Amino acid sequence: MTIFDQTVEGRTGFRLPEEPDYGFEISNDLPTHLIRETPAALPQVSELQVVRHFSGLSRKNHSVDSGFYPLGSCTMKYNPKMNEEAAALQGFSQLHPYQEENTIQGALELMYNLQNSLCEITGMDAFSLQPAAGAHGELVGMLLVKKFFQLKGEPARTKIIVPDSAHGTNPASAMMAGYEVVEVPSNREGRVDLTSLKLLLDNTVAAIMLTNPNTVGLFERDICEIQKLAHDNGTLLYYDGANLNAIMGYARPGDMGFDIVHLNLHKTFSTPHGMGGPGSGPVGVKKELMELLPVPRVDFDGSKYLLKYDLPDSIGKVRSFYGNFGVLVRAYAYIKTMGSDGLKRASEMAVLNANYLKCLLEKMIPAAYSEICKHEFVLKGSRLVAEYGVKTLDVAKRLLDYGVHPPTIYFPLIVDEALMIEPTETETKETLDSFAAVIANIIDEAREDPSMLKSAPNNTVVGRLDEATASRKPKTKWF
């Protein structure tokens, strides 16, 4: 039911006082063509109806605050409320981007310190905080690659190598920057196939985009050899930082030989994620690419903080103003609260939780790769299809009936009927045990009555949707 369905003629949620007599006529300065000829088509409801309606809608949304959210490769971990309070402080929330620099020294100091913290965590030499999301950071990274080779006079480098297990944004970002995408296959272990990579490397390859750990949750243990192959070929190495939360404090992309890195602050550093709020995808580089970073960069001259624009080789501005500042505040608060030992502990717990849950679940659904994983793992649901005629999609839909958000499904594409699960470091053992018990119940249901899964969800607000139509032809308005 929409709020319009609750309309009762004449009902209102407010009452304005009568216009006082000022002793003179109040003129209306609005142009005639902007004045309504008929009243706005608003619902006629009471204030209580409005409150109950929208409060009820909010409870229909699933969030990490309301339940387990094991969405693989998306790191839906809890966002500490203290960080929210820090971002809401008046000195941060009431800033205006056009203020004079001398009035925003505190904000600039925070950004400068955050840049330095990210450099220390990743082993890079400089960061830009402008990109508004991870995919935006990827695009910025690809533009940096393009500018780097333009300045070197190597226009023939027109290709980007991307693993077949990569996040879909990797090839998309490379293509948006004008590159041809070349796919390198994974080997049987789920890692980059070195033999294939060697055959692909030539003087037309500008960069290799890698995620480490990769999207099947495994560390690319050949990374030192990969970086040598790349650099010996004059090729840059790009790090998709989506999975940094598995290795913080243990390994740094800069030390592995990466030249460019983007980070998802809204994942690794516990700020609102996806539809829960704006993202942030800062990009870090080694010193050879520092002068190419977007302007302005936040700098410190020894006495004051300033926005630095005098970078003639910069790729220019990539976003209005200076980034999603509220997200930067949250990430900075998280880093300062955790400290180096806390960030390392977060990685430990993310890996421990993933391996514990993997051990529970692979007894019921085979793991795509049997070895110890990092922060996430992938199950292979093809056996469920063979034995019960039940697909991964059916399992995911049935999870909704249990009040659990499904994991990522059918990704990465190299795993048949994939279920990609990431418990994150913020979940308790009890939550993981409960999730495993739910999966066990669903497997029993698949064995005894597969139709229960094929018709799921059965007790949600709406039943199973035609997802293709919903995606291509969404209904975004009431009338």
Any idea what the CATH superfamily of the largest domain is called? Type I PLP-dependent aspartate aminotransferase-like (Major domain)
Structure class: alpha/beta
> How would you state the average pLDDT, rounded?
93
Indicate how many domains the architecture comprises: 3
CATH architectural arrangement of the largest domain: 3-Layer(aba) Sandwich
Secondary-structure element order, as H and E? HHHHEHEHEHEHEHEHEEEHEHHEEHHH
Bin the helical content: 25-40%
Radius of gyration: 26 Å
Gross morphology: globular
Low-pLDDT segments:
none
Determine and state the CATH class of the largest domain: Alpha Beta
Largest pleated sheet: 7 strands, mixed
Distance between the termini: 13 Å
If you had to describe this structure to a student in words, what would you say it looks like?
With 479 residues, this protein is an alpha/beta fold. The chain has three domains: 3-7 and 21-57, no CATH class; 81-337, 3-Layer(aba) Sandwich (Aspartate Aminotransferase, domain 2); 341-472, Aspartate Aminotransferase, domain 1. Strands 1-7-6-5-4-2-3 form a seven-stranded mixed sheet, with helices on both faces. A three-stranded antiparallel sheet has the order 10-12-11, covered by helices on one side. The chain starts with 46 loop residues before the first helix and ends in a 7-residue tail after the last helix. The chain has helices at residues 47-60, 81-88, 90-93, 105-122, 134-152, 169-176, 194-200, 223-232, 253-256, 265-268, 325-361, 382-388, 392-401, 429-448, 450-454, 467-472, and strands at 126-128, 159-163, 180-184, 205-211, 236-241, 260-263, 283-285, 297-300, 305-308, 377-380, 408-409, 418-421. The longest helix has 37 residues, at 325-361. It contains 16 helices and twelve strands.
